[in-house]
TrEMBL record:
Protein name, entry field: RidA family protein
Gene3D superfamilies linked to this entry: RutC-like
Domain of life per record: Bacteria
SUPFAM superfamilies in UniProt: YjgF-like
Transmembrane segments: none
Source organism of this protein record: Streptomyces mexicanus
InterPro entries, A to Z: RutC-like_sf (IPR035959), YjgF/YER057c/UK114 (IPR006175)
């Protein structure tokens, strides 16, 4: 039986000022959103979309690890980019982390983020039940 709704914070400066959690588990789902390559006040991979994607997805995976889940539990990813030119670099990072899992995935190009140095923001949804391949 799944636990009640549980929220996990990551320490992002925006979580406190905007009033959100890094991850929320409800029933068999764990949702992670608003994940960039910031860790605290430090932006990792500035100017490098591949590195920002790796750090952001790794941070999202760390959030679901709080619920005892790993990449094999990921059902969906969403990736937001500021430049279409970065699709291949970000896709390469996604493949390195999720190739064995093959979640459904959406990639969108957006106008920008709250900090103009951010090139990539990610979301994922994970399932806390049994997962078949």
């Amino acid at each position: 039986m799944s636990e009640a709704v549980r929220r996990v914070q990551s320490g992002s400066p925006w979580e406190e000022s905007f009033g959100f959690a890094r991850a929320v588990a409800a029933g068999d789902r764990v949702l992670v959103a608003g994940t960039t390559s910031f860790k605290g006040s430090v932006l990792y991979g500035e100017g490098d979309p591949y590195e920002q994607a790796k750090v952001a997805f790794t941070s999202a995976l760390e959030a679901i690890a709080e619920f005892g889940l790993g990449p094999e539990s990921v059902l969906r990813t969403r990736t937001y980019l500021t430049h279409a030119r970065d699709v291949e670099a970000v896709g390469r990072a996604h493949k390195e982390l999720f190739d064995g899992v093959r979640p459904v995935s959406t990639l969108l190009v957006v106008e920008g983020f709250v900090d103009p140095r951010i090139l990539v923001e990610v979301e994922l949804e994970a399932f806390r039940g049994a997962v078949d391949s």
